[in-house]
C-alpha cells in the first residue's frame, strides 16, 4: 500500500469545489487531514454548511474534520457572491443533509497552523477559494510559509482576461489583500489560474460518461449539469471548465499544466483593476524604463504559475477518477 500524503483542502463550496473534493478522494493519493471552509462563492457561514454537507455526501464526515472560515475577507472592498454560477445556496439545486459531526471551535486558519506543525515539511495545502484562511495563518505565524510543503491554489489570470472583471479572476478579486499576503510570503506556491483552467473543458460527452458511472456520481452529475447550464447562460457555449478539480490534480501531477517560475503581485488599491494578478516571469529580460518600488521588492519572491494546459489530459483523468470514490445523494 502506498503511503498517502497529508493534505488540507481549503474551499468555498461551490459546485466545482464539491467536484474537487470527490476527485481528491477518488485519486487515492491523499490523506485528507481537514476540510477548511472559507467565504467566497457564498458568504462564510453558507460555505461552512455546504462543506459539512459535502463531507456527509462523500461519506467522510466521521473521519475528516470541517472547520469554519472567518466571517469576512481581509479586504474592506465590497464583495458580491457567485450564486449566479453556483445556485442560491452554492450547490446548484441540492439540499443536502448536514453532517452528523460536532461543530468544532477551531477555525480554518487555526487548523491550518496546527496541521503545518504536525506535518512539518509534508503538508500540501490546496486552496480552491479566496486565500483568506491562508493569509490569516501567515499573518499569525509567518513561519507557516516554510512549514508547508506547498500551496496549490486555484485563482488568478496571468496572461489571459479575468472572469469577474476584464482583468481579475473571482477568487483573487474576492480577497485581493489576502492573495497579496500569500504571494509575498515566500510560501512555495503554484497558481492554477484561468490560463490553464479555461483550457481544460468538460463537454456533454464527458457528462454522459459521469452520468453512466452510476449512483456514486449522481450528485456530481447533477452539479455538473447545473454548472454547464450556468456557463451556457453566460456565453460559455456547451462546455464548462473544471477550475477547482484542476488545482487538486496539479497537487499530484504538474503535467496537467504548463508552468513558469515568476513573481505575482496582486493589485488591490485600484477599483478598476482590483484583483489583477501581475505576473513577472523570472526568465523575463528587464524591459522596463524604471522599476517601481513594489517591483523592486517583490520580483524576487517567486512561485510557479500556470500559463496553459499541459501534456496530460486532465478532463480524461477527472472523468475516470470521480467514480473511484462513490458518494451518496
Ligand atoms: Ca471554489
UniProtKB/TrEMBL annotation:
Keywords: Glycosidase, Hydrolase. One of its GO terms (molecular function) is hydrolase activity. It comes from Streptomyces vastus. Residues 7-279 form the Inosine/uridine-preferring nucleoside hydrolase domain. Signal peptide: none annotated. This is Nucleoside hydrolase. It comes from the Bacteria. Pfam families: IU_nuc_hydro (PF01156). PANTHER family: INOSINE-URIDINE PREFERRING NUCLEOSIDE HYDROLASE, URIDINE NUCLEOSIDASE. The keyword Hydrolase applies. Gene3D superfamilies: Ribonucleoside hydrolase-like.
Amino acid at each position: 500500500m502506498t503511503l498517502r500524503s497529508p493534505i488540507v483542502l481549503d474551499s468555498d463550496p461551490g459546485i466545482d469545489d464539491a467536484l474537487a473534493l470527490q476527485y481528491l478522494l477518488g485519486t487515492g493519493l491523499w490523506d485528507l487531514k481537514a476540510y477548511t471552509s472559507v467565504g467566497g462563492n457564498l458568504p462564510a457561514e453558507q460555505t461552512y454548511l455546504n462543506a459539512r454537507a459535502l463531507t456527509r455526501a462523500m461519506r467522510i464526515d466521521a473521519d475528516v474534520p470541517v472547520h469554519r472560515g472567518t466571517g469576512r475577507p481581509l479586504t474592506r472592498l465590497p464583495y458580491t457572491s457567485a450564486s449566479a454560477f453556483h445556485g442560491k445556496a452554492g450547490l446548484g439545486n441540492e439540499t443536502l443533509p448536514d453532517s452528523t459531526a460536532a461543530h468544532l471551535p477551531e477555525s480554518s486558519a487555526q487548523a491550518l497552523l496546527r496541521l503545518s506543525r504536525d506535518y512539518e515539511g509534508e503538508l500540501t495545502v490546496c486552496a480552491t477559494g479566496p486565500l483568506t484562511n491562508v493569509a490569516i495563518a501567515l499573518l499569525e505565524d509567518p513561519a507557516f510559509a516554510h512549514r508547508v510543503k506547498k500551496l496549490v491554489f486555484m485563482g488568478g489570470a496571468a496572461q489571459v482576461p479575468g472572469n469577474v472583471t476584464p482583468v481579475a479572476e473571482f477568487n483573487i478579486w474576492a480577497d485581493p489583500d489576502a492573495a497579496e499576503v500569500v504571494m509575498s510570503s515566500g510560501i512555495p506556491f503554484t497558481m492554477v489560474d484561468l490560463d490553464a483552467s479555461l483550457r481544460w473543458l468538460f463537454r456533454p460527452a464527458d457528462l454522459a460518461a459521469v452520468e453512466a458511472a452510476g449512483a456514486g456520481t449522481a450528485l456530481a452529475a447533477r452539479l455538473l449539469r447545473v454548472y454547464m447550464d450556468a456557463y451556457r447562460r453566460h456565453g460559455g457555449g456547451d462546455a464548462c471548465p473544471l477550475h477547482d478539480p484542476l488545482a487538486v490534480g496539479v497537487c499530484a501531477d504538474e503535467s496537467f499544466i504548463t508552468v513558469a517560475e515568476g513573481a505575482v503581485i496582486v493589485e488591490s488599491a485600484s477599483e478598476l483593476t482590483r484583483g489583477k494578478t501581475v505576473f513577472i516571469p523570472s526568465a523575463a529580460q528587464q524591459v522596463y524604463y524604471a522599476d517601481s518600488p513594489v517591483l523592486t521588492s517583490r520580483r524576487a519572491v517567486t512561485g510557479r504559475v500556470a500559463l496553459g494546459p499541459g501534456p496530460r489530459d486532465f478532463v480524461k483523468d477527472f472523468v475516470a477518477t470521480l467514480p473511484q470514490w462513490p458518494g451518496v445523494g
